[in-house]
């Protein structure tokens, strides 16, 4: 079949397959950058900014016209990017080329909206393209989790074929492809149920669109003025909507990543709710007049204030009351839905008034607003994060002030909005502190005090102290959290007991001290050491006596800041002088570094998130091996005891990956007290590990008790049925996300309902006193504040009615 001009669509099928292609392509670009370039937010911002700029450029120019040509160009650009990232090491100056290829990849999205605007009603265009985009985004994440980089290789091409066939009127061919995919998924493991449900739902929805939906240009798509707002003011409305949507998405993802500690699952659900909210907004746009939209705007402003201030408190209450996981996911979905659906009403509504021929202009303005929001977020979150949410609400106030325009309510509501934003700004630190403490109280960390809290591109970092009494006189523990998940802790001496070790003390001994001391004694010279991760800074002092120079590579500066400020007396990093800390992605650092190391240590969390999953696999271990000097060693935690009876365990998968990369390794199985249930592996790239020297070091340090030691040459571990972590299978992400949720909400699947109930009863018996409502009562339900509110209300009423009275008096004269 010749690739000629597309036919004019006669049903909604091409709109949905187009959105599906754009969703799959964006997901593939994102994962290609994460896997082959960098896991830092640099890659994410390059993707978002250049994609939106590419869409705007394609809509606003007449260069390279024709959707079919741009689709081929997009596909060629994507695979050029893929080959470039796979074959070459990209240094920062080369990111311009990366952005250029993404920019070109976005052209068909711009040409699609530009061409379809003249033949499809705007509401139908945005609604059904967005439905396809949601399906493509969600399915893209699930496919990557199942098939890893194979998704990146083949999914965009398959989505392209489906879009191409739909525009050629070959709906049956597309249905056959979907059916084959469905059968393929069913034949693969337990994931088949998830994929089958998604694909089957998509087939039903698309079939309904093909069989029942037809186009009618008689829809309210011609210019129908409903407001006296000028074009400039309407453009300002669209710009603010695009800008605020970016800030909104960050807030929702951040809060729920903290609440349920499952980043990929949070992103999946938030994205689904976020874009489904778009579809609802598009569907409602033609049914809402501007009169109703003004009222809805102010009410939504109040709703957002409540959600932004108290979402973590609402989650705390749900945890305290013992609700199940489904309720938390419902809270996430409803919060995302309520916040995003409002903004999506404006674009189709304005196009209904101005005509579809204005689509390229107004949609470009919305995308420019979103790009501006990304740039603003990037600057503010790095230097002054407390400005982020006040800026969001001030723009919201400006939005409804523009909508009310010449209404007598415009200035009173402006005054009220500025006042409420000011109140929120003044108290946002206290709101955050109280809701955060309530959240940790509901999880059993009683009488907490918040020492440190920061939101970065990667984590929410909290450091707490808990107390044995309500007056906070007797310290119980200090705990560091990442995204609400306990990172490490220290229990203060209690009832005459001595304790100078944290939960990381034993861990860092086996992971860092032991291999460094072994290599130092063996070579009789100080070692060049690289530590990947290690944001706790515990490892620095552990290896200092044996290192000529230690380089710590940590991706998140907030983690480093919290460790320097609140764990100095335990990690004692400042006692060492021979170290440097580099803020970067471990994978990118290793790829770009020309230096070889005597010892490389992986002090990185379990592969439960995408960032860490990309560092605990066979492909990354090959990179590590290439950066070791002859005779160099690699130290890694197996994230638990390696036990061949459980071939699907994290520890066995990590050990299998090490086994396939390194010729020699030594396993330390901490199988009983006092060592805890941990596992560590020391791997060598040339000569075998001298087990007798390891034993002597452990004996001298009184660490031999409770450990079992195994050399790889003994073939102690059977790897039958063990699949190592690999870029070709990311199923550990989903398993890790679900495990985090179970631990977070005390919903361990091995416990029955009676045991779960007893856990929540135990929390309730502790008589948790929530701080957020008490703070609200103290600050807002008092005479001074009520007096201020009264004055503001009086001024608002004067602004509302005084002009009207003045006009009436003039008419009598």
Describe the structure.
The chain has an eight-stranded mixed β-sheet, sandwiched between helices. Strands 1-2-3-4 form a four-stranded antiparallel β-sheet, with helices on both faces. It has 813 residues and is an alpha/beta fold. It starts with 12 loop residues before the first helix and ends with a helix. Helix content is 62%, strand content 11%. The longest helix is centred in the middle third of the chain and has 33 residues, at 410-442. The protein folds into four domains: 9-214, no CATH class; 230-403, Growth Hormone, Chain: A; 505-733, Rossmann fold; 782-812. It is globular, with a radius of gyration of 29 Å.
Give a quick rundown of the structure.
The protein is α/β, with parallel strands linked by helices and 813 residues long. It contains 30 helices and twelve strands.
SSE arrangement:
Layout: H1 13-36, H2 41-60, H3 67-87, H4 95-105, H5 107-116, H6 122-147, H7 149-167, H8 171-186, H9 192-212, H10 231-260, H11 263-284, H12 290-321, H13 325-340, H14 346-354, H15 359-383, H16 388-404, H17 410-442, E1 448-455, E2 460-467, E3 475-482, E4 485-491, H18 505-523, E5 527-533, H19 538-543, E6 547-554, H20 557-566, H21 568-571, E7 579-583, H22 586-592, E8 597-603, H23 610-613, H24 618-626, E9 628-637, H25 650-661, E10 664-670, E11 678-684, H26 691-700, E12 707-711, H27 731-744, H28 753-765, H29 771-780, H30 783-812
Parallel strand pairs: 5-6, 5-8, 6-7, 8-9
Antiparallel strand pairs: 1-2, 2-3, 3-4, 9-11, 10-11, 10-12
Helix pairs in contact: 1-3, 1-6, 1-7, 2-4, 2-5, 2-15, 3-4, 3-5, 3-7, 6-7, 6-11, 7-8, 8-9, 10-11, 10-13, 10-15, 10-16, 11-13, 12-13, 12-16, 12-17, 16-17, 17-30, 18-26, 24-25
